[in-house]
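Handout, section B. The chain below has 182 residues.
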Amino acid sequence: MSGEQHATGDRVHKVEAWASHEIKRYLVMFVYLWVLLGLFVLNEAVILSHQGIDYRPHGFALINALVLAKVMLIAEDLNLGARLRSRPLIYPIVTEALLLSGLFIIFHIAEREILGLFHGESIAAAMPSIGGGGIKGLFCVAVILFVSLVPFFAFRRVSRELGPGRMRAMLLGAPVPAAHDG
């Protein structure tokens, strides 16, 4: 094998490893958000069923989880909490959960506005009724989102601090990957 073929093989291997890592990151975010949003939908369906309203938004949680996981991946890649790395872990955990909660609400509003405008509605008519409407509902949903995202970011930050594979080993009894000296 020539040097050029070896270099090309190394680049292909690096791209494959990067793609595999990114897909895993995306899938973890997607599953977490799908469960979270699915619980929101389930809660809304139960509440509305008590009022005799049949509510079945089957695709809501799935589609929004797909989109918001990508938003979350991009936000993480922007490294918004980088300047907080030297601070205790609680600072980047709370900051990331707060930023993503706000970002998710903004994306939800933007999505509804775009769909509404596409269907010929006015901006006011397309405005979603978050948490039942009003500032109280919006605040309540924002707080629930924030609290729901804290464990996700806490797990990721603590796992990163412990090192590759340590959290998995601690939780699942899996073997810890060998440390690389270098």
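Note. The chain has two domains: 1-62, 79-182. Compare this with the example in section A.
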